[in-house]
Amino acid sequence: xxxxxxxxxxxxxxxxxxxxxxxxxxxxxxxxxxxxxxxxxxxxxxxxxxxxxxxxxxxxxxxxxxxxxxxxxxxxxxxxxxxxxxxxxxxxxxxxxxxxxxxxxxxxxxxxxxxxxxxxxxxxxxxxxxxxxxxxxxxxxxxxxxxxxxxxxxxxxxxxxxxxxxxxxxxxxxxxxxxx
Length: 180
Description:
- It is a single chain.
- By secondary structure, the protein is mainly α.
- It has one domain: MFS general substrate transporter like domains (Growth Hormone, Chain: A).
- The protein has 8 helices and no strands.
- Helix 1 packs antiparallel against helix 2, helix 1 runs antiparallel to helix 5 and helix 5 packs antiparallel against helix 6.
- The mean pLDDT is 94.
């Protein structure tokens, strides 16, 4: 449960960063207009929505662990693109890739938590969701604190690293949930 909740935490932290910092990244770091910067949040959100509609098909085909491994790695690639982006267009591409990558990850951990022990599925699900939401709420603040001293581009390395950790550990965390 600690691993499942911890990975839900880092993935939801990454989502929270995208929600709150994607527009700031384009406007302040890449020098876009405010209207172009707003597209970053839109691109991330649309990508997440579209992928969530098909994520279950991919999970059924690959299994939860391999799905999250690939998806979280794609999220890390998206963050790498945003960190290295030389222009708003490349920044938008990065935030879109982040949305594609993160879209189906956290739900896999919530499902796994509910299946750890069916007698206590509600308790375990609540714990995993709670840890995820702490990450969602804490992520933007953590990035704000880091970016005030190190810069936003360096601060975005935190969710990038979190996605890499999730990609590496997801198969272990989700191995008991592959029978779904």
